[in-house]
Amino acid sequence: MDCLFCKIINREIPADIVHEDDDILAFNDIDPKAPRHMLVIPKRHIATLNDIEEGDLALVGRLQYTAARLAREQGFADDGYRVVMNCNEDGGQTVYHIHMHLMGGRRFTWPAG
């Protein structure tokens, strides 16, 4: 498989890892859009949100839990943060392995910014 995130999980490509457990890996984004910008990914390859199945619900919930926990540990949970998951090309997905962007350390605006 030629998946960038699978290569990071398998330690074929280096990453600044901030969390790892049996099912999830989180690392700092190499092109951050905020002072704190991490990617939270499952270790099991799931290409897009459209590919999530009922058996994946606990894993996807753990992604959310891990993002909230990292925000607390990194000290920006109380101020607020943004969590984003993109799906497919029009949704802005560039790596086809589901992942959650956890961003904090600045004020966010809607719809852009």
UniProtKB/TrEMBL annotation:
Pfam families recorded: DcpS_C
The protein's name: Histidine triad nucleotide-binding protein
Entry-linked PANTHER family: HISTIDINE TRIAD HIT PROTEIN
CDD domains: PKCI_related (cd01276)
GO molecular function: catalytic activity
Superkingdom of origin: Bacteria
Lineage: Bacteria, Pseudomonadati, Pseudomonadota, Gammaproteobacteria, Oceanospirillales
HIT domain ranges (all copies): 4-113
Active-site residues, Swiss-Prot/TrEMBL: 99 (tele-amp-histidine intermediate)
Chain location of the short sequence motif Histidine triad motif per the record: 97-101
InterPro entries, sorted: Histidine_triad_CS, Histidine_triad_HIT, HIT-like, HIT-like_sf
PROSITE patterns: HIT_1 (PS00892), HIT_2 (PS51084)
